[in-house]
Amino acid sequence: MAAISLKAIEKSFGDTSVLEGINLDIAPGEFLTLVGPSGCGKSTLLRILAGLEAPSSGDVLIDGRKVNQVRPADRNLAMVFQSYALYPHLTVGQNMMTPLRLRDLSFAERLPFAGPLLARSKYKVLWAQVTETAKILQIDHLLDRKPGQLSGGQRQRAALGRAMVRKPAGFLMDEPLSNLDAALRIHMRSELAELHRSLATTFVYVTHDQAEALTMSDRMAVMMDGNILQLGTPDEIYNNPRDIRVAEFVGAPKINLLPGHLDSNGHARCGGVVLTRVAATSSDKITIGLRPEHLSLCDDTDPEALKGRVVHKENLGADIYLHISMKDGAHRLVVRAAPLDGVAVSIGQDIAFKRHHGAAMIFEAGGKRIGLDNNAGTAVAEVA
Amino acid sequence: MPRSKAPYWFVGPALFLMFVILLLPIGIASIMSFTNYSLGNSGAEFVGLENYEKIFTRSTYEKMFGATFRYVFVVVPLSVGLGLGAALLINSTKRFGDLYKTIYFLPVMAALIAMAIVWEFAFHPTIGIVNSTLERGCGTFLEVWGWYAHGCERGFPLWLTDRDYAIWTVAFIGVWQGFGFNMVLYLAGLTSVPRELYQAAEMDGAKSAWDRFRLVTWPMLGPTTVFVATISFIRSFQVFDTVEAFYPQGGGPSKSVYVMMFAIYEKAIQQNLMGIGAAITVVFLAFVMFLTLVQRWLVERRVHYS
Amino acid sequence: MSDTTLSSTSTVSLPAFRFSAAETLKHAVLIFGSLIVLLPFYVMVSYSFKSPAEIMQNIGGFFGAQEAFRDDYCIKLGNDEADCMVTPIIYNYTTAFEKAPLIRYLLNGVIVTASIFFIQVLVALPCAYALAKLRFWGREAVFGLVLFCLLIPVHAIALPLYIMLAKVGLTNTYAALIIPWTISVFGIFLMRQFFMTVPDDLIDAARMDGMNEFSIIWNVMLPTAIPALLAFAIFSVVAHWNDYFWPRIVITGDRSLFTPPLGLREFKGDADGDNFGPMMATATIIVAPLIVAFLIAQRRFIEGITLSGMK
User: Fold this and answer.
1) How many C-beta atoms surround the C-beta of residue C159 within 10 A?
2) Which one of B13, B101, B241 has the shortest CB-CB distance to C123?
3) Cα torsion B210, B212, B213, B219: sign
4) Is residue A251 part of a domain?
5) Model's pTM, two decimal places?
6) Which residues of A touch B207 (CB under 8 A)?
7) ipTM of this model?
8) Which residues of B fall within a CB distance of 8 Å from A115?
9) Secondary structure (H, E, C), B157-168
10) Looking at CB atoms within 10 Å, which of B189, B221, B286, C132 has the fewest?
11) A98 interaction partners in chain B (CB closer than 8 Å)
12) Is B300 on the interface with A (CB under 8 A)?
């Protein structure tokens, strides 16, 4: 278990700046995910942490010790690569033994042919560690196979095994699931999370898939353009994004965004929609964000009903998402409907829906979140 | 697809030429190797295995095999090793890599016969640049080396005309000419090694360059090495230009550079002993084909990872 | 190369662990290698500039003093001594062209290499197309034969080929220089591998447009194969321009058929002390075309020469 700190990490390749002063503290035993679109610098950050890349400036600390000048192997971190990076000429067992051999055996003992004879007992001990780890990952029957003979999922486990076998202080994972098919990917999410709990070790996990970040992590850091936009628990990130880019990136289907303004009382308005809660400022241009699940179907007689026409229907089984073109034609919204309500709806149909109170978020023109208060005193009755 | 004769028209000429130019000669050589045929004589006698017996018993041919194998077993390891070394060095330097690559590749492009003549000049005992450069080193620390001190005192070797040096000098030129080719193949092989493997090795604790080489580079270059070695074998078995340029008659001092291709040329073309020439041809072909088959087998069996 | 500039480039993966001392050592080794590799080129070009005296005494640096010297051969012809003073570089290069029909040799080289390449493509392209894209009885057998023939180096069967050509009276002709190389199994193999990557749809579309198989080859497949053909051209031209063994066997005596390597060899055969300069000039002229072309289009050349790496 290791605490990892990144202090003012900057990295640029030539003229292009990839990381712009990253500060991040990772608690011992935490599962922290770095998530963001491709090119946001998350992989570079992970590699700086691993020591595979040197930062242009800034410090990396592991358990309080500055490790900028420490070789990757000596940082006691293990890494799982996107392509797994298994040595294709070695069997799974030999692959898993490699980090142990390099750490625990002398140069002479590593010599081919002679080495195993010289240090038979040591090899036995190492091999026992390999089989033990393989049993945990249920790949002990594959130890004699070469990576080329394995399926994607088995290779993934072999790569995990190679990382686990030396019991590192932390695991670094660079999009480890992205080469798996969809079903296996979802299965591996829970398996990795379980593994994290049983190993009780620090995990730093890089992904571009917000669903992976939400489902697995203790905390997640949303990165964009070389900066961490927001760091928090998945719950905080999803329900309380502090930046419009975070709100947009996290959540599928995407959050609905409506252009609007803040009136002189601090009420956000968009067309006929007016929010009860007020902001401390007023502004001409704001954006109102409403997640699909903050909207639901209702009767057209409902006083708060909004009206529109269904243009597209996504049936996911457990949920049905309706894409609705508003009456004025200017906006399109995605509404989540319960299966029972949703199946009855057909494309082209006019429909009424309403939003849940207190769920909308508003963002200023620059993208920052604007706080809202339930200021009952000056509340204005909401119209429609 | 409609049944048409078009494919046969397309394949026909190639097939015909393959038979006439590649397969038929092998047949002719095999048959002729059992005769004492010579061009201009009508008819030939069947002599059984006499030609082969000569090849494997007479001292001339013993020298031929000796020279050929000495040449091959110097040129192949050195040109493969230097090719790999140059590729690794060039790959790991940050600058001028392309320049070195260009320079090392120049000998591959140049007509070997022309360069052989130039090398003959360079190795000339009195006016050659090699010995005159070596003489300049006399009186310096280099004389600590016994061989060098001896050269300073008694004169440096005659290189191409000294029985003890001739084959090694010719082999040196072979290495000079061939390693750039191997280097380029290795460079191509190196670019196909996934970078993540090196990073994985770094994470796994392969701290020294040697460890990374053993763990990643060398195994990943396995297929390239097999190919490069085979090509080098076949090319060096076929050495002729330099030998003929230096020793148009007889194959060098005491036949010490009497390589197989030159033997075929001398016996069959110069001396019109077609039977024995054909027998050497058959032995030669057997070597080359055996090597290529070994290569294909290795590629499929051992170094094919997936 | 200064160490500061080397260590400041931090785009490589592990800059923190690199030492510029190691970098310097690498360059030292590479430069030493370059000197040895370049040595004969230096000797060749330098001697082609120098006077016989400078060559014999090993003086005059790279370019020689370029002092006029007396051409004894010219004197022998009964000319005045004043007319026979020549500058070494001019003497060497003019002698190279005068003493032997060098232009003729070069022309022969061009004719032979061009014909070989042209016929190789003419034979190999349709065959490769058929092997890659047409289904016909015996296709696998033909391809198997191609793979087998890849094992045979043509130089190794030179003797029986020579006898065959002698029997039909073709030695000492252009045909003798060209015929053995008309079939390039490697070319067939290479083109076949390339055509395998061309989508079938393209060919089907051409058929729908009413093209027959012949016009598909020359109007559809040939243009798509240009990059591979270019590489193969370089491979073929370099091999046959530089080839010495085969011309040596089939061309005996008839100077008008000599290829450049044979011409140079002939020159060497009767070279005496005065002719070292002109001989080096000849060597330079023969080596120069490919070297210059290589320096201009390095990438293509390296690609072409290493094509055999695809086998």
Assistant:
1) 26
2) B13
3) positive
4) no
5) 0.84
6) 71, 73, 102
7) 0.86
8) none
9) CCHHHCCCCHHH
10) B286
11) 204, 215
12) no
Give all domains of chain B, ordered by start, each with its CATH number.
45-301 (1.10.3720.10)
H helix runs in C13-87, sequence order: 20-47, 52-57, 72-76
Does residue A209 sit in the same domain as residue A325? no
Architecture of domain C100-270: Orthogonal Bundle (1.10)
**Tens digits of residue pLDDT in C244-274:** 889 988 888 778 888 888 888 887 766 555 6
**Of chain A residues 45-64, which have a CB less than 8 A from chain C?**
52-54, 56
Q: Searching chain B, which residue's CA lies closest to the CA of residue C26?
A: B89
Residues A235 and A373 in one domain: no
* Nearest chain B CA: its distance from A199 CA (Å): 19
Closest CA to C95 of C107, C86, C106: C86
**C287–B111: do the CB atoms touch at under 8 Å?**
yes
A-chain residues near B202 (CB < 8 A): 51-52, 71-73
Q: Are residues A327 and A306 in the same domain?
A: yes
Of A244, A266, A294, which one is at a domain's C-terminal end? A244
Question: Are B25 and C157 within 8 A, CB to CB?
Answer: yes
Structural domain boundaries in chain C: 1-47, 100-270
* A193-202, A264-273, C92-101: segment of lowest average pLDDT: A264-273
Joined tokens for residue C194 = 């390339």
Q: Considering Cα of C246, then C249, then C254, then C260, what sign does the dihedral take? A: positive
Mean pLDDT value of segment A13-41: 90
Rounded to a whole number of angstroms, the distance from the CA of A78 to the nearest CA of chain C is 17
Contact flag A85-B207 (C-beta cutoff 8 Å): no
C190 touches chain B (CB under 8 A): no
C16·A54 Cβ contact <8 A: yes
Does A46 fall in a domain?
Answer: yes
A325 within 8 A of A309, measured Cβ to Cβ: yes
Nearest to A88 among B199, B203, B305 (CB): B305
Q: Does a structural domain hold residue A249?
A: no
Same domain flag for A41 and A177: yes
Distance CA C269, CA B247 (A): 11
Q: Are A275 and A267 in contact (CB under 8 A)?
A: yes
Q: Along the 311 residues of chain C, how does pLDDT read in single tens digits?
A: 333 333 333 334 444 444 578 888 889 999 999 999 998 998 888 888 888 777 777 777 777 777 777 777 777 777 777 777 778 888 888 888 887 888 888 998 999 999 999 999 999 888 988 888 888 888 888 888 888 888 788 888 888 888 888 888 888 888 888 888 898 888 888 888 888 888 888 888 888 888 888 888 888 888 888 888 888 888 888 888 888 889 988 888 778 888 888 888 887 766 555 678 888 888 898 888 888 888 888 777 777 766 655 44
pLDDT in tens, A83-97: 888 998 889 999 999
Question: Hey, which residues does A361 pair with through a beta bridge?
Answer: A289
Q: How far is C10 from chain A (nearest CA, A)?
A: 8
CATH number of the domain within which A265 lies: 2.40.50.100
Query: Are residues C55 and B127, on separate chains, in Cβ contact within 8 Å?
Result: yes
List, in sequence order, every residue forming a beta bridge with A31; answer none if it has no partner: A203
Q: How does pLDDT run across B212-262, given as a tens digit for each residue? A: 898 999 988 888 888 888 888 888 888 888 888 888 887 878 888 898 889
Number of domains observed in the structure of chain A = 2
Neighbours of chain A (3+ CB pairs under 8 A): B, C
Helix (H) or strand (E) holding A288: strand A283-290
Calculate the alpha carbon distances from B297 to A93, B225, B227, B285, C57 in Å.
Answer: 26, 14, 11, 18, 55
Nearest alpha carbon to residue C280 among C52, C34, C37: C52
The answer to whether the Cβ–Cβ distance between A69 and C16 falls below 8 Å is: yes
Six token digits for residue A314: 């996504």
Whether A9 and A107 share a structural domain: yes
The verdict on A230 and A341 lying in the same domain is no
Domain annotation covers residue A227? yes
